[in-house]
Amino acid sequence: MAATRTFSIIKPDATRRNLTGAVTKMLEDAGLRVVASKRIQMTREQAEGFYAVHKERPFFGELVDFMISGPVVVQVLEGEDAVARNRKVMGATNPADADEGTIRKTYAESIEANSVHGSDSEENAKTEIAFFFDEDEIVG
Ligand code: GDP
């Protein structure tokens, strides 16, 4: 199968605990290659736009507050079946439900402060990558 791309965010709970390298190592060990990466402070407008699909959910306001509570690292990951591969190493949304050896089981603090974001479909991956990166910032 050809290499595909997905979009990842190392969330503020992880950057605060200096886990950027540790999380990235788990992504790399899972067969994903970081082909773009930048540390940014998201604006409220960016966070609201990025999570617009969750606008009606009761935790939307808290989620936006959390995502702008500190720096994040946005990344493009490349690998065989990248979307599914990344979702597998991330683990379930709620760390209490996540499998052993996953990033969220290892590092997440709560269902909200769960250390990583990963696209849930090829289509969303394309949209999310374009939200944060120009094509010339991605070097495979
Ligand atoms: P994901 O695809 O596994 O990240 O999960 P979702 O798309 O369902 O949710 C997006 C993000 O919203 C999650 O990663 C969490 O940071 C947050 N979130 C999800 N469910 C809850 C919840 O019940 N309460 C709060 N406070 N945050 C949540």
Automatic annotation (TrEMBL):
It is found in: Cytoplasm. PROSITE patterns: NDPK (PS00469), NDPK_LIKE (PS51374). Residues 3-140 form the Nucleoside diphosphate kinase-like domain. This is Nucleoside diphosphate kinase. Keywords: ATP-binding, Cytoplasm, Kinase, Magnesium, Metal-binding, Nucleotide metabolism, Nucleotide-binding, Phosphoprotein, Transferase. PANTHER family: NUCLEOSIDE DIPHOSPHATE KINASE, NUCLEOSIDE DIPHOSPHATE KINASE DDB_G0292928-RELATED. Homotetramer. It comes from Aurantiacibacter zhengii. The keyword Transcription regulation does not apply. Belongs to the NDK family. It catalyses: a ribonucleoside 5'-diphosphate + ATP = a ribonucleoside 5'-triphosphate + ADP; a 2'-deoxyribonucleoside 5'-diphosphate + ATP = a 2'-deoxyribonucleoside 5'-triphosphate + ADP. The keyword Nucleotide-binding applies. Major role in the synthesis of nucleoside triphosphates other than ATP. The ATP gamma phosphate is transferred to the NDP beta phosphate via a ping-pong mechanism, using a phosphorylated active-site intermediate. GO terms for cellular component: cytoplasm. Its EC number is 2.7.4.6.
